[in-house]
Amino acid sequence: MAEIRALTRPPRHHFFGYYGVNPWDPSLTQHLALETTFHEHRPTARDRATVGLVDAATGAFRPLAETPAFNLQQGSMMHWVDAGHGAECTYNDWTGERLVSRAMNPHTGAVRTLGPAGAPGAAISTVGAAIAAVSPAEPLAIGLNFVRMSKCRAVVGYDLLPDAPLGEAHPRDDGLWCMDLATGEARLLLSVADVVAALPDPRTREGAGWFNHIYFNPSGSRFVFLCRIQRDARWYDSLWSVGADGSDLRCLLDYRFHTSHFMWVDDERLICSTDVLGPMQFVWLPDGPGEIVPAAADAMPSNGHACFSPDGRWLVTDAFYDRDGERIGELMLVRLADQHKVTLGRFVHDPQFVGDIRCDLHPRWRPDGRAVTFDSVHEGSRQVYIAEVGDVVG
Hints:
By secondary structure, the protein is mainly beta. Helices cover 4% and strands 44% of the residues. The protein has a four-stranded antiparallel beta sheet with strand order 1-28-27-26, with no helix packed on it. Strands 2-3-4-5 form a four-stranded antiparallel beta sheet, with no helix packed on it. A hairpin with a 5-residue loop joins strand 22 (307-308) and strand 23 (314-323). The longest helix is centred in the middle third of the chain and has 7 residues, at 146-152. The model has no long low-confidence stretch (mean pLDDT 94).
């Protein structure tokens, strides 16, 4: 059975954020995390998080920088990159006028600024963009305007301009930004207006549109993203893939279906939680024409944050359910060859931690495939935990 222990400790709160992203430095001894003095409310423009490194052996937290550009669900979308400047950790930031990403060498403290130039004082659509996903193959990232997102879906946005109006429902000057990690320059790759215009039914073009949840395929040749439209107190999902250069846009699932979480299996296929086959479930979804079939139906939950081990043999995911008023988070491994499920742990979260301040486990593999880290509030504070799974995965 896996050994599970806290990687960070109170009195301050610590978390990394989203699933399927590598938080480990090249030596696999330091883990990126944010540190805050609160976790009971959605971050405001006045709140700050400390970006730092956690020593995996001692749990010591070494602060590196501060940022107001974060949320409790996805953190500050931190990554490790090497774009010709040595190993750097990235985090998202706000200059007071525009949204940017910073790339920091944690050994020297040198910091570079990445992102579009922005237009201070202009519409909210032109305040800039910050990293949402990093290519595994080239020194490039895809950026999003998380300030605009705070108006569309606050839980994953940065509430840095609380009094500013959303602006255009389908802006032509905002969307997916291609960011050169070597030079720091950025250009608009695909606008919200471009994708909304390509939606297959005009009824889903009525309402504010935004993008979210970006993941590159293993070769870095394509990435997948959600386009959502807000209308009548609900949103409509559509799932898209596109070439890393912005070409060959494909609608994989349209507005008729609810689409939640997804991850690439290989360059041609994803695992995706959706109701395209009827009930909400994980399916194998081709990146283009092809049959959609249930994925590991005997072992997988209906939804969760699923990602694959480095060797592709195992999948880790979380799942939440209610039990007598308690919110239970389950962390599990699934061996894909035979749908063998291993429950690593069940964690009781206080009922207050729902909605915008919930703490999904958001599991992440260590690059050696021998451990998984996750965020949890089951001991009263928000902390990062590690599950040593080497004996389980073999």
